[in-house]
Specification:
- The model has no long low-confidence stretch (mean pLDDT 89).
- It contains 8 helices and no strands.
- By secondary structure, the protein is an all-alpha fold.
Length: 142
């Protein structure tokens, strides 16, 4: 036979369920906001976490985004090396050329533009950076 729950037990259960719902909503919101970051790997996820530390807890974000909290803190303390800085600079240049050309230039034309500006990058590297940035040239509308 089942015992009848007292009103305080029911009230406690309702409060517990409301907390679970609130936490689930927060997890969904984090996933929704970090959608594009997930596709680009851990550095982008870590950047997302750093940008949103004031809005969500680090513990919850690392749990939802399946990254190690200790690894995030290690990344946050470690400064960028020369290679990473060069990559960021090249991605900024590629993005500016891409939008200056009204999203019509592909990796080959952008690598020629970079070479004219004094930077030497092969087409494949430019293509990889464009892919990481989510940039894709569109064709002409006839």
């Amino acid at each position: 036979m089942k015992k009848k729950n007292s009103s305080s037990d029911i009230y406690a259960e309702v409060i517990l369920l409301e907390k679970k719902i609130k936490k689930t909503d927060l997890k969904f919101e984090i996933l929704k906001n970090a959608g594009q970051c997930i596709l680009h790997g851990k550095p982008k996820i870590f950047e997302f976490i750093k940008e949103n530390e004031s809005q969500y807890s680090i513990r919850l974000m690392t749990e939802v985004l399946s990254v190690n909290r200790r690894e995030y803190h290690r990344w946050k303390k470690k400064p960028l090396n020369d290679t990473q800085l060069k990559k960021i600079l090249m991605q900024q240049k590629i993005t500016s050329i891409f939008f200056a050309a009204r999203r019509r230039y592909g990796s080959e034309r952008i690598s020629v533009e970079l070479e004219n500006s004094g930077f030497k990058l092969c087409n494949r590297t430019v293509r990889n950076y464009m892919s990481e940035l989510g940039l894709s040239a569109r064709g002409k509308n006839y």
